[in-house]
Description:
It contains 30 helices and no strands. The chain is mainly alpha-helical. Among the domains are: about 90 residues, Alpha Horseshoe (Serine Threonine Protein Phosphatase 5, Tetratricopeptide repeat); about 110 residues, Serine Threonine Protein Phosphatase 5, Tetratricopeptide repeat, CATH 1.25.40.
Amino acid sequence: MDDTDAAGRSRLVARHGSLLILTMLALLGCTDARGQRVAADDGAALSAPAVDADAVTVDMPAPPRAIGVNTIGAYLSGHIAQQEQNYPSALAFYQNALAHDPQDPAIGERVLALSINEGRFDIAAPLAAKLAEHDSTPLATLVQTIELAKAGKIDKALDAADHLPRQGYHLFAGSFARAWLRAADPQQAGKAVAELAVFGQDKQLLGLKTIHTALILDLDGDTEAADAGYHALLGKGDLPLRLVELAGNFFERQGKTEEAKALYQRYADQGADTGGIVPTLSLNGPPPRLIASAQAGLAEAMFDLASLLGEADAPEVAMLSVRLALELKPNFPLAQIVLGDIMSTEHRPKDAVAAYKAVEAGTRFAWTARLRQAAAMTQDGDKEGAETLLTAMAAERPDRAEPLIELADSLRSREQFTRAAQAYTDALNRIGDKQTDRDWSLYFSRGICHEREGNWPAAEADLRKALDMKPNEAAILNYLGYSMVDRKERLPEALKLIKQAVEIKPSDGFIVDSLGWAYYRLGDYKNAQGTLERAVELQPADPEINDHLGDAYWQGGRREEARLQWHRALDLNPTPDLAKQIAGKLDHPPRGVTSAAATRGGG
Length: 603
């Protein structure tokens, strides 16, 4: 995807990788962020690197003044519930604290943040108005802006938006709000577009400026300028669905049905990447506008911020943005899906399932929502329910591979490798001759399943096929090389593959461990020790890497250090099989160690 293509959006949502995002996050002021990260599955290697949220999250201060016993008890109960991620209970406790001490702004701000987090604008809206009567916080002002816009009180909403800080998150949210509120008046279209200038400061955010400029000009009736904007975004390469929808809708409304049809076909030609969702020409004449009002435009903008922040690994602030989008536009399938994604990331699978289920069955996004619902059900432990849903979806649309892929991933996570391999095979058969290099992950995943079920010839064939399709993918290089090392096959080639993986991901402790173990298998114990020491530095809590370092120390004659390392590995909760092997080495020191190696790069 080039810099202007698709407004910087992914298939469904915004996707940006800019350091300017850190500026956006620097001042939210009252979101209670935990600074937690969800560890990625190293083996899947399917996600883009995430920005470190630890550097940008902000914790709430304690109430700044003396408060009564009843208040502090409720407040502390809310704090504990929030730490345990029981947000509904936390909100109830904080409300109780606020009822005992209604003048405490810090408690009020915390109730405001949590009520937005839970989508409780029946609480958030009046509280924001009350806070604004005194020393209004930026979040209260933003909520007021949204509520006034929703009520159609554009001038008052614009006045509130003008009071938002011109820094941090509120710079971006405020710029969007002022732009779209000005767009409600055709005489202010120029000023509306000027409000988007902040998004032109970084070329990775330029797409946001371009798409919202085109939408505003389209709403204003400047079709020539809007047309130029849409075409600038289409560019070359793959297109995200939302841009295809917006541009195609514009072309159809302008009578350019052939251009719209060609755009939809171009999107369809992306094959499996379309996720089974392909827009089609309206059958009843020109379709209605997708963005028909300033409120709808502002909801679109807040959705874009939510998508952007979700990609930046800032789920708390993404939650704020998507909740504001849904407050303006409750029936917004894309925002509902993003809400579900955030809930899933935050380990709230039941809430994720509810968000996905809220997507109306008649929309084209219902298919995607059901797929993600199944993933959330698996995360919630309802694996049988997820399998039933995916099996039904696979039967419902026998031309689509997505349900089988999701089913295979679920089965693989449950270590049902034989069934998972068959599901991947069925998915590949459905894709058929439409396979592209993007399908490397299916061969990689099936190869993992074959390797784990002991079918090495099939595993090697799949892993090499995946590598042909994605030559510089560190996960494939590492898994193939490590498997060969573990089997003591073609060790020089295995070493070369793993070295290449380390060059691509030098800070991945598991891949560095693979390299150290390859040196060990080759009898180069000096390099093995140094490399495995580096791996332990990168992944100090991994028992197998520590076990490997102990083996290298032993073979290198450093016997006491080896014993210490094996004891350390036992303290790190190894699997029962690994623990048994380590204990055996401690009880009966070996002459030559051949520690079993668990797979790396996904399993």
